[in-house]
Structure formats: structure tokens, C-alpha cells
Amino acid sequence: MTVQPTTGPAVPGESPETTRDRVAALLARSRERSTRLTDLDDGELTAQHSPLMSPLVWDLAHIGSQEELWLVRDVGGRTPLRPEIDGLYDAFQHSRSSRVGLPLLTPAEARGYVAEVRDKALDALHRSPLRGRPLEDDGFAFGMIVQHEQQHDETMLATHQLRSGAAVLDAPAPPRAPGPVAADAEVLVPAGPFEMGTSAEPWALDNERPAHVVDLPAFRIGAYPVTNGRYAEFVDAGGYDDPRPWTEAGWAHRVAEDLVAPRFWSRDSGGGWWRRRFGVVEPLPLDEPVVHVTFHEAQAFARWAGARLPTEAEWEKAARFDPASGRSRRFPWGDDDPTSAHANLGQRHLQPAPVGAYPAGASALGVHQLLGDVWEWCDSGWHPYPGFRMFPYPEYSEVFFGGDYAVLRGGSFGTDPAAVRATFRNWDHPVRRQIFSGFRLARDASPAERDR
After folding, report:
1. Of 353, 118, 133, which is closest to residue 141 (Cα–Cα)?
2. Is residue 105 within 8 Å of 113, Cβ to Cβ?
3. Dihedral sign (CA 46, 50, 54, 59)
4. Measured between alpha carbons, how far is 245 from 301 in angstroms, rounded to an integer?
5. Which residue pairs, CB below 8 angstroms and at least 24 apart, start in 256-263?
6. How far, in Å, CA of 353 to CA of 91, rounded?
7. DSSP string spanning 115-169?
8. Under a CB-based contact definition with an 8 Å cutoff, are residues 313 and 442 in contact?
């Protein structure tokens, strides 16, 4: 990939001119990535590579449809371009597995449609005062669409991982740690209150709001995500054959799906581990965070290791709380936008980076790689914050609250900086592992540590 993410979400208090320039750059970056991910022949774009995923051509036109609805019709006030296709690209009307049978736009039609929409969306950006009503304040509608396109770009990246055949994507390897790393190191997070969520982040989505105080007892959290090497120890010790570390639901899923290792892992005749990554089969890198595991697998490993998964509140406190100032940061390293020195984001690399590779991105408490590399499962269900208010539509967050979901935090190597921050919340069914999901461990503080 040639995309080099250097700009994150809008900054609180910046001028409309700065926001307008930021939005234009982010829209261009998102489209460059979408174009790269759909630079395939028509057969590859229209095929369904997995029943878990849409055909890539559906994602592309859906990106345009949402951009048209919010930026062209609402903000821009223009008449609909293609009202007859609205239903085809409504994610709530058609399951992913059924979309391949719909009368979708052809790849050429989809490319033409998204290009036409973009021209009119940029006109709307030029004309909008970026203030005066909630949808346009600080460029929120534009930021929402930037995030939406980048989220679908990550979904399309997951589809690429599921497709068979030779590799079609390429990227340089991520950096390595500058020195030795104790992969199983833990950090003590002190007891006390912290501010969770946000009321000030301009492009924060409704489920991240409002800011509220959460008081937590002291706990310990892994300084790094769990690595392939550590997870392989669990597999080799018979972790998939022993029901004791698994929950009842987790074990039932393991048996029903015949899970024996993380997805895309395989053994060679000598007992060594390999993985398939975007069409390339390679030796398993033991120092990278484990990826493509379900919540159930993460929870079973944690129990086997005598630990647990962090709650969502624990994860966010470890990521944001600065004990020196008592405040919560925008990002683990501070308030500045993410750069390539802070985190493995934006599909610069097509894999997680080895643990310890981003010391500049550590939190104030010394917890590393909280943003990027792998989405991290948390032991929390999907619920609204106290004082939640739906905005601008219920289908983004509200309709999912209380369902069979577990929370994921932090983004992955496939997540763009504009689509993740330390308050960003993601969720999925606990059986999903086609996503770029991993985890880190937590445990209760000892009595002596709680008394400090």
C-alpha cells in the first residue's frame, strides 16, 4: 500500500478551514485505500469469498450509498442520484450471505457511482460552514463518512484474507522492537476514578459519549498483547482438548466448529506452526500478537494462564489515564494525532508488528500497542454509557445494545487512524474470528498492591 496515514480525527477547537482541509485529505486517503482493495478483476469483485462477508463490489457501492445519503442529499441538499439502489445497499435489509444474489451494480457501474458521489460530496464540503447544526458542527457528518469508508475498507481487507488464491496485496514488514522485550510483563494500574468516554471529541460516535467517571479497584494488565508464541504454548499443552479453561458456551462452540488453533494456523510434519496471510503461507512469527481468535478462545487462554481478560473500563483506563495529571488522554501517548511512530495503523503493514515495536506509542502507565496491531477482546458486553443519546441514527449503535456481543478495543493494523481513538468502541459476536482480533491479559491486584 502507498497510503501513509499521518492525520487522525478532527482536533477539538480547530478552525473550520483546518477541518475542511483535514476532511478533504482524509476522504482522498480513504478512497485511495478503497480503490486499492478493489483493484481486482470482475470475477473476484462479484464473488462471495466467504458467507461471512459481502462481495467486494457490494462494499464499494455501499460506501458510495452512505456517502450520498449523508453528504450529498442531507448536507448538500441535492436530489438523489440513484434512489432505486438504496434498498440494495441497506445493510439491515440484506444479510451478508444473501447479497451475492442481489441485482448489484457491476464493478464498472459501482466505480462510476462512487466517483460521481465523491464529486458532489466535495462540493458539499466546500459549501458547508461546518457549524450551525449538530450534523455539520466540526465536520461531524464528513468525519462519520470518513470513518464509515475506512471501516468498510477494513472489512474488505478481512475479505481479502478469506479469499483463496495467490496474494494480490503487498506491504513492507512492520518495524521490530528496538531492544529486548519481556512479552509477559504486566503493569499495575492504580485504584481510583478516571474519565471514560468523551463529550469533547468532535468525531466521536454516539456510543463513545458522554464522558463519565468510572472508579476502578487496582488491577494488573499485560504490557503487550498476547503473542503467537505464548498462544502456541496453550495449543501445544492441549488447551483445545481440555474443557476446564473454557466457558460452557465457549467449549460448545469449540466442539461444534472443531477449533484446534487460531484461524489460518497449520502444522507441518515436524510439528512446527505456519500461518496463511493474504495468500502467503509463512512460518508463524512467535513475537507478533496472536490474531484471528474468538472471544471464547481468548477467554480460555486467559483462564489457562491464571488470568482473565480486561473489562472495557480497565482497558480504557490503561490506555488513557495519566497518573501525573489525573486526566484522560485522547490517545495512549498523548493528545497528538497518530503517526507511524506511534502505532501500526492504516494498512501500512499487512500484519501485526512484533511486541515492543512502538515504544513511542506507550500509555502514561507504560502499556504498549493499545492502538493498532490487533483488536483486543474485552470481558464486557455491548451496552450504552450512562446518559447515552442516539445520534444521528439508531442503526449505528442503539439497535445492537444488549445483544450477544463482546466489546473489542484499540483497532488493528487494518484500521485507519481516522477511524480509531482511545475512546472508540467496537463490538462483535464472541464466535467471530475472521476479524483481526487478539487480546491481552489482566488480573486483580494483590492485597498488598491494592493497599499502596
Report:
1. 133
2. yes
3. negative
4. 7
5. 257/431, 259/294, 259/297, 260/235, 261/235, 262/231, 262/290, 262/291, 262/292, 262/293, 262/297, 262/433, 263/292, 263/293, 263/433, 263/434
6. 33
7. HHHHHHHHHHHHH--S-SSTTTGGGHHHHHHHHHHHHHHHHHHHHHHH--SS---
8. no
Distance of CA 56 to the CA centre of its chain: 19
User: How far is Cα 429 from Cα 326, in angstroms, rounded to an integer?
Assistant: 34
Average pLDDT value over all residues in the chain: 96
Instruction: Tell me the C-alpha to C-alpha distance, in Å, between residue 87 and each of 45, 84, 298, 321, 414.
Output: 20, 7, 37, 44, 28
Strands, sheet with 426-428, edge to edge from the N-terminal-most edge strand: 426-428, 406-409, 375-381, 437-438
Q: Residue 262 in contact with residue 434, Cβ under 8 Å?
A: no
pLDDT confidence of 443, banded at 50, 70, 90?
Answer: very high
Going from the N-terminus, what domains does the chain have, and what CATH number goes with each?
16-162 (1.20.120.450), 186-227+296-450 (3.90.1580.10)
Q: Are strands 375-381 and 437-438 parallel, antiparallel or unpaired?
A: parallel
Q: At what angle are helices 56-67 and 107-127 packed, to 10 degrees?
A: 20
Q: Note the pLDDT of residue 6.
A: 44
pLDDT at 4: 38
Phi, psi for residue 216 in degrees, rounded to 5: -120, 145
Q: Closest Cα to residue 157, out of 294, 295, 278? A: 278
* C-alpha torsion sign, points 36, 172, 427, 371: negative
Question: pLDDT class for 236, splitting at 50, 70, 90?
Answer: very high
384 touches 411 (CB < 8 A): no
pLDDT-derived band at 13 (thresholds 50, 70, 90) equals: confident
Separation CA 342–CA 346 (nearest Å): 12
Sequence-ordered list of residues with C-beta below 8 angstroms from that of 417, at least 6 positions apart, any chain: 5, 6, 7, 8, 9, 337, 338, 343, 345, 346
Which grid coordinates belong to 364? 502514561
Reading the block at residue 247, the C-alpha cell is 466457558
Contacts 24+ apart (CB under 8 A), 268-276: 273/228, 273/232
**What pLDDT is attached to residue 7?**
65
Over residues 146-202, the pLDDT tens digits come to 999 999 999 999 999 999 988 999 999 999 999 999 999 999 999 999 999 999 999
DSSP 302-358: HHHTT-BPPPHHHHHHHHHB-TTT--B-SBTTBSSPP-TTT-B-TTSSSSPPPTTS-
